[in-house]
């Protein structure tokens, strides 16, 4: 009987394309201004970095990217819907108004 393989967590990679987004920068600034107030920072900066700062930046980043992806998806769906309506309207205009019998 084979032993189950331990699951390996892939390393998290920062999507660098977001670094210039103003909303992302604001979120990071807000996080940092709160994170520097954590007492652990002055007691043990290495633990603060590993336990507070890095996971916090990761959480802010993932949340921002999820919201950005949802907005992109919603925008795409909106434009596709508008395009379908325009195509349908064009079809109605080409066939003319329904005849009255």
Task: Explain how this protein is built.
68% of the residues lie in helices and 0% in strands. It is an all-alpha fold. It has one domain (23-95). α1 (22-35) runs antiparallel to α3. It is elongated and about 85 Å long. The termini are far apart.
Question: What's the quick description here?
Answer:
The chain is mainly α. It has helices at about 20-35, 40-45, 45-95.
Note the total helix count: 3
Count the E strands: 0
**Shape designation:** elongated
Strand content: under 5%
Average pLDDT confidence is 88
Number of domains: 1
Largest sheet: none
Please tell me how large the radius of gyration is: 25 Å
Distance between the termini: 78 Å
The helix content is 55-70%
Task: Name the structural class.
Answer: mainly alpha
Extract low-pLDDT stretches.
none
SSE string, helix = H, strand = E? Answer: HHH
List the helices and strands and how they pair.
Blueprint: H1 22-35, H2 40-43, H3 45-95
Helix pairs in contact: 1-3
Sum up the structure in keywords.
101 residues; mainly alpha
